[in-house]
Amino acid sequence: MADDDVLSGVPDDDGSGIDDAIDAGSDLRSISDASSGGGDDDIDERARIVAEAFGPFDQELDGSIDVNDVGNVLRCMRLHPTQGDVDKFVEEIPKDNGRVTFENFLPRALQALDHNIYPAATESDLTMAFKTLLKSHDSDSVEPLTKEKLVQLMSTTGEPLNEAELKEMLAHITVDKKGEIDWQAYIKDLMEIVRQ
Questions:
Q1: Cβ neighbours for 105, distance < 8 A, ≥ 6 positions apart
Q2: What's the pTM value of the predicted model, to 2 decimals?
Q3: Which of 80, 86, 139, 157 could cysteine-pair with 120, CB 3.0–4.6 Å?
Q4: Half-sphere exposure in the Cβ direction for 163 (13 Å, CA)
Q5: Ranges of Acidic residues compositional bias (predicted)?
Q6: How many CB atoms within 10 Å of residue 91?
Q7: Element (H or E) spanning 65, and its range?
Q8: Torsion of CA 141, 147, 148, 150, to 10 degrees
Q9: Helices (H) and strands (E) in the chain, counts
Q10: What is the pLDDT of residues 38-71, one digit of tens each?
Q11: Which residues of 77-142 form beta strands (DSSP E)?
């Protein structure tokens, strides 16, 4: 094993390591089992988290996922990358025919976990973003937000949401009698969901 191997020296109960599970054929159940055997070592737990998030997306059962699922796996690990972050992540790891192996995914995923590279937006970040989007062009006041305006903004500004993402977002908003959205209440609800 190379000295820079992220998982070197992490044994399970029978003395074999996570590296052996990876080398033995990329069976994620073996990786998860190997990572849970040591118990006390933090890297065991983190590798298990990655394996458990990666596994459901391994549709071919060959220890690899489609590059289009990388963002989903990261989000299942409770990370919060933007699409730009996901694109950069994918760019930095080896791929084969549009697929990413667990072996290549794991070191970068562990780095993301260790350094909290993709933190969730804070309530103040979201408030600032909404105020910026809704700022009146002729004053510092904030314009009311309607459902139509929200859909237009979220589908054309910044990193646009797709139809499914918009539908999910709209399911969490409340429109008052004037047709306006209480975006501050939406942010509070969103922050509660993120905390869970």
A1: 50, 54, 65, 70, 73, 93
A2: 0.60
A3: 80
A4: 0
A5: 1-22
A6: 9
A7: strand 64-66
A8: 60
A9: 10, 2
A10: 444 666 888 999 999 999 999 999 999 999 999 9
A11: 99-101
